[in-house]
């Protein structure tokens, strides 16, 4: 049986073709594409099928998508693509086309992780059967939560929590909010906690610290700001500290909102790339800075996922779930 799984992102799309024989899964082709190179998901999938050079049609295709997944036509949030289920299913010649939210896939992927795939940021003891949460900054800011069901497995629920209104926690963050309101009518957490958000925070710091008129959008992307900070640029350093403080505020808020004593996981493309910043005492202090509820946050096990294939593994596991091939967790 042939399966296609994909983790579609605003920056990159990661796809694989797997074969399942007697319950054993083997990946025969895998590739990462730059999403901006394609005008549509259809053209990306066409390229992938051509590159994979497989003769059989896939029995299941599961695509993890960055945006609200609804029936019929799906519009992605940070990518100008619209997916039409019927058309794509016909083009891929598959009887089963499954669309899931990208963080729902990441949540499904958590069960496939091994100890070398994450590091602990807050070493609290996880409670078996308790709620879990996964969030992460990348091109956007994803969030899903998980509720235990039978046999130690979890149901994963997608949210659009990244689009909740950003709430500043101190005067500096209030100034950031005012700065961002000059550009965006609605300033969500995602506008701050994402690759484009790092750029916004850097521009704000430049203006706040030096009074300089910040350069136009696109002047420095997340990776460049991070690299400049590590090279000793004081404005970039302040920007990364502010970004990490706000990431911590967000994580602390989720600890209170969901009380995920089973684990609060950080994924997305940015988290693993800023690991040293997340492992400073400053990050954990800011997470737990919740007044009378600080102790509750301290009880939350917080993990940084370093395995960048999480979403792809989750999409494959979700595809396998639908075929009932594996009753146990699929590990690839
Ligand atoms: N070292 C870094 N520090 C901060 N930001 C970074 C770094 N490297 C890349 N980025 C930013 O991360 C973003 C890409 O994230 P990611 O790898 O999660 O892409 P994606 O999977 O396509 O995103 P999404 O799933 O959120 O649509 C880009 O906006 C980029 O600027």
TrEMBL record:
Indicate whether DNA repair appears among the record's keywords.
no
- In its UniProt record, which GO terms are filed under biological process? glycolytic process
Record bears the keyword Transferase: yes
Q: What is its EC number?
A: 2.7.1.2
Q: What's in the keyword line of the UniProt record?
A: Kinase, Transferase
A GO molecular-function annotation: ATP binding
Which CDD domains does this entry report, sorted A to Z? ASKHA_NBD_GLK
Pfam families listed in its UniProt record: Glucokinase (PF02685)
Q: Which family does it belong to?
A: Belongs to the bacterial glucokinase family.
This protein's name: Glucokinase
